Structure formats: C-alpha cells, structure tokens
Amino acid sequence: MNKTFLAGIVATGTLVASQSALGLTLYETTQDKVTFSGRIAAGSSFVDDVHDDHDPTNAGSRVRLIHEHNFKGGWSSIARAEWGFDPFYENGEDAHYKRLLYAGVSHDDYGTILVGKQYSLWYDMVGVWTDWFWYNGATAQGSFSGASSDGGFDGNGRPDNAISYKNSWGDWTLGVLYQTSRDDVPSSVGYSGNLTGLDRKYTAQGAAVYQPRDDLSLGLTYTHSDIDGELRGGDNTDENVDAALLGARWTPGNWYFALTAGEYHNLVRDGDFSGVENGDGIVDEARGYEGVALYNVKGQVPGTVQLYTGLNRLEDSDSDARNAFYLAGAAWMLFDDNLILALEQKFDDSKNVDDSDYSNDETDLLVRYNF
Question: What is the pLDDT of residue 259?
Fold first, then answer.
C-alpha cells in the first residue's frame, strides 16, 4: 500500500492515533487484503436535576469491511462498507444504518479519489482536529449539523453521492468534493412552520491544510450546498447552505492542542437551541467554536492515560441563544489502546433566546472496545 493512500485510510474515519482497532484479516495475498473490524461502545449519563435510570446506551458501535488492492505502477485501490448498529437492542432491534460506502484509487504523485458515501473534506481535513472528546463534542464545528444527523445531506459530515479528490504538494494538502442532487430527505428530519421538504441540487466543497512542520497545522474549509425548500402550497424557498471553518492544531511532544471556528448560513436547525423559532426551522446565521487541550501520560501505568479539557460553543447570531459547554475528562486506554474507559464532566453553559439559563451539568461514562 503506497504511503499517500495509507495515510488517507488512517485519517478517514479515525479520530486519534490511539484508535488502533485490531481487525480480523479475512483474506490476504501480496496484492489483496480484506479486513473486518469495528467497535462495541456503551455510555451512561448522569444529568443534574434530571431523574434517569442511567442504563448504558449504545455509543457509536459499528462494523466495517475493507478491501485493499495494490496495482502496478504505484496505484492502489480501496473499497469500504461501514454500518452502525445497536448491539444492546434498546428498542427491540439492532437499529442498523449505513455510515460509509465508498470506493477509490490512489497514487503517491497523483493523489486520492473516492466515490460514494464518505467522510467530508470539511471533517476529515479540519473538523476532526477538535473531535477528541471520547463521549461528547463535535456539536459546534458544523460537521454533523443540517438535515441529517450524520451531515450527509448538506455535505459536511458523511456526504452521500459524493466524489472527492485530495493531494499534497510540499507543505500543502488540498482537496475538493462534489455532491450530486438528492430530494429524498431523511424521514428523521422534523420540518417546522411552512417547510415540508428539501431538494438538494448539488454541494461543492473545498479544503486546504498548511503544515510547515510536523507539529503544526493550519486549515480552512468551505461548503456551498444549493438547496431549495418546499413550502406548503407548492412554493419554493432558498435554503442554500454556505459555511466556513478555520482550524489550528499544535502537537508538541505528549501534548495536543486544537481550535476551530466556523460560520454557518442555513446549516443549523432550530432544535439545536432553546427558544429559537424560525418560519422554516432553519437558523439563518450561526457561529461555532471548539477547542481541546490534551496530555498523554505514558509509562506511569499500563497503557496510556489521557487528561483533557475543552469547550464547545454554538451561537445563534440573531439572539442570545447558545448551545455551549466546558468539559474536563480522563481516559485510560489498554490492550494496545483498543479498550477505552473514559469519564467526562460536562459543565453546561447553554442559554435561551432571552439569555436565561436552561443548562444542566452532567457526568458521562464510556466503555469502548475496538476489534
């Protein structure tokens, strides 16, 4: 496997180097390799002033199947299928759904092309830098906002019907992504007011990362999604998404620091805030900030201990409403970092449109095993 494409495989769909799933090799020759891997994860939340049985719930369990092939002349290919599921049958079923389904080719000199449902360049090149909390996080970076919870419709999370190209030149890595039309909006989307449906014409996305040295990266990504809203009575309304995200990452020694800041037009839904009501259920303008600081403690106990803190802050630009929290956490990773035990304390700082508090602090526990 050539180094450019291998780096893309590692980056796409992983958060940190510690997530090194074991994987099961189903088939392997000098040219081909088929692997099966995934994770089982459970979490439990204790919310202040809220009665709950605290039963463990599914926390992102998934399985994946990957086929890799090496061609002559430095080319390689990959095909990946990944499905999320609920191993605990909380609602009487496994609740499986498609997370990723793509194929692609790569070359050290000519870059990487992927086609299908994949991680966006927005997330894979910039947003992932601040998605380091083990249980919470990624609420203010715009990756998983929009008409579907995985960011698939608007293109910032795991866009469907997409083709992307990424390559590196010196200290720069550049990428472009195009998403084709779609009008069958996920049924999970709750429409508000007069809005009855959405029709995506296309999504165009670009991202650039400048890495002048190994421990420092600066990134920028932008998305335009041409979307029409369908109103009661048959009329249409402009619901185009325009969003931009800036990011910075510094990784000296055992430390990790990252910060992102974004502006979002027609990307965030009313439900992300308390008290916000628009005629179409979509926030006209919002901004988001995410930050993380982490230290890896090594050699003191078996495995690795991570101590981390940070913030997520999503704001409505037209009112005092915000969805915000500060966080302190610790995680212990064992068995080659495949078993993760995490404890997070979230200090909620959310506000209503009139600047009144509606927040509840909470304590979260996570157990996860990568296989």
Answer: 98
